[in-house]
């Protein structure tokens, strides 16, 4: 389903939004690993980025070549309007479910 996003896709999209104009593969990978305290492979990230691109949730562009990368260019990612809508829909759904649930998460 085009509008559906999974948990890892949501993490990737939110991380791209958080990193802004510094959202490229390795930066996204490292940020997710640090914030979520979970190890992910670059292959899993690339598969997810490909899927998000196919769904029309991200666009990308190549940056300028850099000396530290041996003249190679970084591919930077940006969210599309449909990604922002999908994230908004997911947040609304989660907020509604949390409000309706009877879960008491505090240790009291």
End-to-end distance, in Å? Answer: 41 Å
Q: Compute the average pLDDT.
A: 91
Work out the helix count: 4
List low-pLDDT spans: none
Run of helices and strands:
HHHEEH
Strand content: 5-15%
Q: Any idea what the shape is?
A: globular
Helix amount: 40-55%
Strand order, main sheet: write it out: 1-2
Strand pairing plus helix content: what structural class? mainly alpha
Number of strands: 2
The major beta sheet can be summarized as:
2 strands, antiparallel
Instruction: From the alpha carbons, calculate the radius of gyration and give it in angstroms.
Output: 16 Å
Short description:
With 108 residues, the protein is mainly α. The chain has four helices and two strands; from the N terminus they run αααββα. The longest helix has 20 residues, at 81-100.
Describe the structure.
The protein is mostly helical. The chain is 54% helix and 9% strand. The protein has helices at 7-19, 25-36, 42-54, 81-100; strands at 58-62, 75-79. It has a two-stranded antiparallel ribbon with strand order 1-2. α1 (7-19) crosses α2 (25-36) and α1 crosses α3 (42-54). It is globular and about 55 Å long. The termini are far apart. The relative contact order is 0.16.
What attributes does this structure have?
single chain; 108 residues; mainly alpha; two-stranded antiparallel sheet; 4 helices; 54% helix; globular
List the helices and strands and how they pair.
Elements: H1 7-19, H2 25-36, H3 42-54, E1 58-62, E2 75-79, H4 81-100
Antiparallel strand pairs: 1-2
Helix pairs in contact: 1-2, 1-3
């Amino acid at each position: 389903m085009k509008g559906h996003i999974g948990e890892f896709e949501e993490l990737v999209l939110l991380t791209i939004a958080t990193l802004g104009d510094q959202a490229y593969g390795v930066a996204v990978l490292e940020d997710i690993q640090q914030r979520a305290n979970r190890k992910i492979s670059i292959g899993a990230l690339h598969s997810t980025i490909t899927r998000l691109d196919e769904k029309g949730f991200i666009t990308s562009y190549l940056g300028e070549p850099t000396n530290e990368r041996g003249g190679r260019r970084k591919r930077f990612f940006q969210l599309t309007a449909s990604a922002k809508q999908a994230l908004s829909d997911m947040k609304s759904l989660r907020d509604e479910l949390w409000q309706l649930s009877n879960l008491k998460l505090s240790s009291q």
